[in-house]
Amino acid sequence: MSRRAATLTVASVLVLVLAVIGSFMRVPYVALMPGPTSNTLGTNDKGQPLIRIDGRTIYPATGNLNFTTVTYRGGPGGRIDLFTALRGWLDGDTAIVPEETIFPKDETPKEVDQENTRAMQDSQQNAEAAALHELGIPVTTRVVVEGVQKGRPADGVLKPGDEITALDGAEVTSVSQVTGAMAKAKIGDTATLTYKRDGKEQKAALKTVADPTGKRAVVGIVLSDQYKFPFKIDISIGDIGGPSAGLMFSLAIYDKLTPGPLTQGKFIAGTGTITPEGEVGPIGGIQQKMIAARKAGATVFLTPKDNCADALSARPDGLRLVRADTLHGSIQAINALNTGNGAVPACAK
């Protein structure tokens, strides 16, 4: 055998060995890829309105206000192999990130999924509140039990979903009111909670115990503020988690509750968290979300201001980036796009 042939043979064997090793070697990285994008003005996979509003006049809405998502491969329960990671690094549509970016070391994949589900639920509620706030429609809050700590006085008495309406006879409508009143209680005092369960009002007299610091009186419940809306809003998007669709939900609700289509038929996509007051916050996976939006047909992408730098460096051709600071500002920007009058805030380096 010639030297050249021998060299090629050895090289081929080495490549084969590396290929075998690469296909079995699991690495602690996650591949992020463009996910599904859905029109918040359209229907879900069951043919039902993605956002349904009952008890209020709604108006026809045309065009697209798409929220975007990111899918992933990998994680503690099914790590990707080395070759998949290498291909991802070379693929402009895919981002390879350390596993702990998605799955913190102190949390299980199940806990991460549960957190994402809660984040989506909170996002929907915040989006509803933000849209109604923008429209000047009054919204009130209620105090709901989110969790009960085992071994504490409330264990076996209260349960998640109970609505706390009063503490020691004083009406409460926010978590801060409850925590403020409990801050004045002494360890060993009795706290009388009035609560609703299945529409029925009940009372529970619970003797307080010390918290882990030994300084505060507690009964062992985790509370959250939930909004009471004057009419019913249902958002049905299936098995999608995370808070990043908040802005687009708010815009769709606003569009349905106001005369005339907000988009004027344009294909607008976007992303961003939302607060009840309408402030837009940053998200992850901006590159993959822009790619998904452009592939779906979007020509305008609403981008949280803190994501603008990353978005500019990876903007797909044909996609205009519009900076989104607030829900109000986003509505103004869309109106300016439609009329050609007024400034349209853009992402800038």
UniProtKB/TrEMBL annotation:
PROSITE patterns: LON_PROTEOLYTIC, PDZ. Transmembrane segments: none annotated. Keywords: Hydrolase, Protease, Serine protease. Its EC number is 3.4.21.53. It is an enzyme of class 3 (hydrolase). It catalyses: Hydrolysis of proteins in presence of ATP. SUPFAM superfamilies: PDZ domain-like (SSF50156), Ribosomal protein S5 domain 2-like (SSF54211). The keyword Secreted does not apply. Pfam families: Lon_C, PDZ_2. Residues 239-337 form the Lon proteolytic domain. GO terms for molecular function: ATP binding; ATP-dependent peptidase activity; serine-type endopeptidase activity. Belongs to the peptidase S16 family. This is endopeptidase La. It comes from Actinomadura bangladeshensis.
